From TrEMBL:
<keyword id="KW-0963">Cytoplasm</keyword>
<keyword id="KW-0505">Motor protein</keyword>
<dbReference type="GO" id="GO:0008017">
    <property type="term" value="F:microtubule binding"/>
</dbReference>
<keyword id="KW-0547">Nucleotide-binding</keyword>
<dbReference type="GO" id="GO:0003777">
    <property type="term" value="F:microtubule motor activity"/>
</dbReference>
<dbReference type="GO" id="GO:0005874">
    <property type="term" value="C:microtubule"/>
</dbReference>
<dbReference type="GO" id="GO:0007018">
    <property type="term" value="P:microtubule-based movement"/>
</dbReference>
<protein>
    <recommendedName>
        <fullName>Kinesin-like protein</fullName>
    </recommendedName>
</protein>
<feature type="compositionally biased region" description="Polar residues">
    <location>
        <begin position="130"/>
        <end position="145"/>
    </location>
</feature>
<dbReference type="InterPro" id="IPR027640">
    <property type="entry name" value="Kinesin-like_fam"/>
</dbReference>
<keyword id="KW-0493">Microtubule</keyword>
<dbReference type="InterPro" id="IPR001752">
    <property type="entry name" value="Kinesin_motor_dom"/>
</dbReference>
<comment type="similarity">
    <text>Belongs to the TRAFAC class myosin-kinesin ATPase superfamily. Kinesin family.</text>
</comment>
<dbReference type="Pfam" id="PF00225">
    <property type="entry name" value="Kinesin"/>
</dbReference>
<dbReference type="InterPro" id="IPR019821">
    <property type="entry name" value="Kinesin_motor_CS"/>
</dbReference>
<dbReference type="GO" id="GO:0005524">
    <property type="term" value="F:ATP binding"/>
</dbReference>
<keyword id="KW-0206">Cytoskeleton</keyword>
Length: 299
């Protein structure tokens, strides 16, 4: 996620990882039109042993505590209750913040890897922009975010349920229309996910807690494969709730977001079984097709 030279300054821009590349591109796009610059907030969580942990949790003084805090998803699954969101104003601020969170990620040496990740990492950037006092919901929906970013279309809530937060403007209680126009905000979201690799306990030599971690990683990856399979086959029921990982990523997997999967494999002959398994996972992800966002209706 950070690149091959994460501990040192990279030799060239070509060696930057996904996180710094995404951050620099995001703030480059934002800088092209300062008059419409949205606010950027960051959250960092890990899914460890099927629990969700906030890696940016702070103490009462607002300083990162260095202690992970367990948090829970809401009923809809896409939002996390009590999750820390920090504002950033540059790629450098973003990398400093994420770097501090990564220090708390669960890691352990195995017979295969000296610094094996024992959890899935989810870094979320949320873009918000306060609406103009003279704008309406219709005119705001037609104002684009910086080029290269897309705004999720609103999702119609099921009967008796409130709409999920990531797809909607922030909620305000019923007030005069003028006040609502000022309070509402536009949202767009970018999620960067680093999945822990599938693991064979017999090969990695995992025992005790490490064996439990291996089992949890493999179950969550299997649940993710099941979700991708259900989406690619167009099944009526998609088993998002079989894992906290898929529950958390439901909006990105089954919504109208753009989904890209990068599969990391080994060129070594001795890892051919794992390589084929990973490529099969990537092929399944590639088969997922989703419709275009529904057009917004004028009220």
């Amino acid at each position: 996620m950070l690149g091959p030279h994460a501990q040192d300054a990279p030799a060239s821009r070509d060696e930057l990882g996904i996180l710094p590349r995404a951050a620099h591109e995001l703030f480059r796009l934002i800088s092209e039109d300062p008059s419409r610059s949205p606010g950027v907030q960051v959250s960092v969580v890990e899914v460890y042993n099927n629990g969700i942990f906030d890696l940016l949790a702070s103490d009462g003084c607002g300083v990162t505590s260095g202690v992970k805090r367990r948090v829970l998803t809401t009923h809809e699954g896409q939002e996390v209750s009590g999750l820390t969101h920090e504002s950033v104003h540059s790629a450098e601020e973003f990398m400093t913040l994420v770097g501090a969170g990564l220090q708390l990620r669960a890691r352990q040496a195995t017979a295969v890897h000296s610094d094996s990740s024992r959890s899935h990492l989810v870094v979320t950037l949320t873009l918000t922009r306060a609406a103009s006092p003279h704008s309406t919901a219709d005119t705001r929906s037609n104002q684009p975010l910086p080029q290269g970013l897309q705004r999720p279309a609103p999702q119609q809530p099921a009967l008796g349920r409130s709409p999920s937060v990531p797809r909607r403007a922030s909620f305000v209680s019923p007030r005069p229309q003028a006040l609502r126009r000022v309070s509402e905000q536009v949202h767009a979201k970018l999620q960067l996910v680093d999945l822990a690799g599938s693991e064979c306990a017999g090969v990695s030599g995992a025992t005790g807690l490490a064996l439990r971690e291996t089992s949890s990683i493999n179950r969550s990856l299997a649940a993710l494969a099941d979700v991708l399979g259900a989406l690619s086959e167009g099944r009526g029921h998609v088993p998002y709730r079989n894992s906290r990982l898929t529950h958390l990523l439901q909006d990105a997997l089954g919504g109208d977001a753009k989904l890209q999967v990068i599969v990391c494999v080994s060129p070594g002959q001795k890892h051919v079984a794992e390589t084929l398994q990973s490529l099969g996972f990537g092929a399944r992800a590639r088969q997922v097709e989703r419709g275009r966002p529904a057009p917004r209706k004028r009220r």
